UniProtKB/TrEMBL annotation:
Biological classification of the source: Bacteria, Bacillati, Actinomycetota, Acidimicrobiia, Acidimicrobiales
Ranges of residues in domain HD: 27-95
SUPFAM superfamilies registered for this protein in UniProt: HD-domain/PDEase-like
Domain of life: Bacteria
Stated name of the protein: HD domain-containing protein
Length: 183
């Protein structure tokens, strides 16, 4: 099965129709996140990281581990380590923003506030600098802010088919990146 087909299968799983405590089905949240990133000029890998960032929840991962499990899933589908890292960091970015931006609490949904403790609470001050200087910091924050905005039950979402060309493009750049690393 090709990767786009595998992503299609993944996004059709009935578990993605659950809301996981939010006000819209998880699939709509994922589509909105990807759309927001893409419409904001994000590249295909960033948009796909947005598309897949919470799929770990649908695999019954805990709040604590769903980011890491989603990252593993993205890698197994053939996406780059960048895509995986961005997925893995979306909870760290939330914990960072809670620590560093007092206005951010007002941005979080009620469910996101409720899950913060299970996710480890605000990022320890001793870890702030390391995160800021990590290579994926800017994109991880971008993904996180799109994640928080992508919870509008009235916005709806385009059909998932609309995103397949972006998935294809992300896969092509992931493959090119892996080829570069092998050289
Ligand atoms: Fe999310």
């Amino acid at each position: 099965m090709g990767t786009v087909d595998a992503v299609r299968c993944l996004l059709c799983e009935p578990a993605l129709l659950d809301t996981y405590g939010e006000e819209l089905p998880l699939i709509d949240h994922l589509l909105q996140t990807a759309e927001l990133l893409w419409e904001d000029g994000g590249d295909a890998e960033l948009a796909v990281a947005g598309l897949l960032h919470d799929v770990g929840l649908a695999r019954r991962s805990s709040e604590l581990h769903h980011a890491r499990d989603g990252a593993q899933l993205a890698l197994s589908l053939g996406f780059s380590t960048r895509v995986a890292e961005l997925i893995a960091l979306h909870v760290t970015a939330k914990r960072y923003l809670v620590r560093t931006d007092e206005r951010y609490w007002g941005v979080l949904s009620r469910e996101s506030r409720a899950t913060l403790v299970e996710q480890g609470g605000p990022l320890p001050i001793t870890e702030v600098e390391a995160f800021e200087s990590s290579g994926h910091f800017d994109d991880a924050i971008r993904l996180r802010l799109a994640d928080d905005m992508a919870k509008d039950p009235l916005r709806g979402a385009r059909r998932v088919e609309h995103l397949y060309p972006i998935v294809d493009r992300a896969l092509a750049s992931s493959t090119a990146r892996q080829d570069d690393q092998r050289r």
